[in-house]
Amino acid sequence: MLFLILLAVVGVVFSKPVLDTFGEVKRFPFVTYTKAWTGTPAEVSEVTAPNVVIAYGKSESRAVLSAASNIAYYLGQWTEDMGLTPRAVRKGKLPTIVMPLNRALKTKKHIILVGTNNSIVKNLGLKFSKPTLKVVQWKGRKVLIVGGRNTRQVVKAANFLAHRVVGFKAGAYKTFFSFVKLRGLIEHENYIAGVHLIKEASGLSACGKNMSLAAPMMLKFPQEVKRVVKKRNRIMYVELVQALKDKDKEKAVKLWKEAMFTCYQCHQGLGIKRLRKFIPNPEIHSRHQRIAMDFGLVRKANREFNCTACHSGRTEQRGY
Questions:
Q1: Is the same domain home to 138 and 197?
Q2: Lower CB count within 10 Å: N or C terminus of the chain?
């Protein structure tokens, strides 16, 4: 969606760190999907959960530890649970996400490693001259190193990761998945829920944070891109809301598909220059397919999935 591609350009506005492995940073497996609250009547089959722990070396400064906590905050905005169960509570094993590196290495998760005073940076012989985000492989897992020449640069890189990568993705995916859910609500004529979903801060209006971050960059966009963005916002937050209030299903579906086409224009470069420079992590991105299936929008015939309720005409192409 358009709110996702802004992630690729929003960093230009700020003095961003070196993304030494650009694609790997953007596609880092920050989250996963799993069951939650197992053993309670409210057990959920799929929630967004952290797929990482955030680690630091034992001699890092308080400033670096504070920066690590900032990353954890925005990861919390993206996720829905950390894996809490009654059994774990009884054993006193409450989940945590920020920890020393030696403890992080005992987990099976990928690692966001904040700072350079640690064994991994030392053993790899890494040196940093600027604020840097770099993904490496370490003993069967991915490690996103948040580095720099000194504490100030490490903190700068960490804040970029927190706000402009993790925080931005949190808003983007909440908006994207809500957009798919909205199509399902329209299909089942649940108009009141649709209006609320558009207005909710954790629904389609989650894009507000991303719009705020991208606003300075918008001033530099070509006019044709600005027109697409304005059209998308007008449809999503004005025209579609009115169609739902009027309980006009035919018009609502038409407007939803028009909004989707504006997303395609930026993602696929239809009529304008393609803005998104990377392909998203398919494991994270694919949740929208399961949401569509839950609403009966996807039909299976001859061993193939029919997704025409959402993908048809100008948006027939699926994926990247």
A1: no
A2: C
